[in-house]
Write a structure and sequence with these properties.
2 domains, 16 strands, 16% helix, ten-stranded mixed sheet, Rossmann fold
Length: 215
């Protein structure tokens, strides 16, 4: 199965949305305008349409109540989960109301706990969550988390423990390397590391990490 592209009403970010035949595009409320301006026809439009300001015509839309317990983006993600998608790219999820950006990050934390990959594309940044035990390294199941970065990666990268300690953290090949350390949710030790033009990696044994790559 392909990738689900979720499109919100915030800043579109620096990435490119180029869905293939196996992918699906879900516009969340005002995200429909971002799709239309780029010539992208979404497979679904979902939301209470307070941002959009009207109920779209000639679209496969799902109308949600204004008063609800989840955001329009979370409703879009839940739809994609029911359809079986396990890889998400989220555009338009930053730059608007700060509360909604945080809500999107919280959503990604929950998705990571289910083994679902989601990347949030901001302006000059990519944000995602890694959960130990949910990833594959060198084709083999890994009891911890190991993520490789190629030498051509540029910019800075930050790692934050999101809901408790992240244990057994090893970083190699970056400006600041560590071995077997613990990152705490109450202390931002992992902020502002840098790629150094060489292959690098991070791995850890326990917990969940919020990762922010700033390009």
């Amino acid at each position: 199965m392909g990738t689900c592209y979720l499109v919100g009403a915030g800043d579109f970010g620096s990435g490119q949305l180029k869905p293939s035949e196996d992918d699906i595009v879900i516009a969340c409320d005002g995200g429909l305008l971002a799709c239309q301006s780029r010539g992208i026809h979404p497979d679904y439009v979902i939301g209470d349409f307070d941002s959009l300001g009207f109920v779209p015509e000639n679209e496969a839309y799902i109308k949600l109540p204004v008063e609800k317990d989840i955001t329009d983006v979370k409703a879009g993600a839940d739809l994609a989960r029911r359809l079986g998608y396990r890889s998400f790219e989220l555009f338009g999820g930053t730059g608007g109301r700060l509360s909604h950006t945080i809500a999107n990050i919280q959503m990604m934390i929950g998705l990571a706990a289910e083994g679902i990959r989601c990347r949030l594309h901001g302006v000059g940044s990519i944000i995602y969550v890694l959960a130990a035990g949910r990833h594959v390294s060198d084709g083999q199941s890994n009891p911890g988390c190991h993520v490789d970065f190629k030498a051509d990666r540029r910019g800075s990268i930050s790692f934050f423990a999101v809901d408790g300690p992240v244990k057994g953290v090893t970083i190699s090949g970056m400006k600041y390397d560590v071995s077997g350390c613990t990152l705490e949710a109450s202390f931002p030790l992992g902020v502002s590391n840098s790629f150094m033009g060489r292959d690098s990696f991070i791995e850890f044994d326990e917990g969940r990490l919020l990762v922010i790559e700033e390009l």
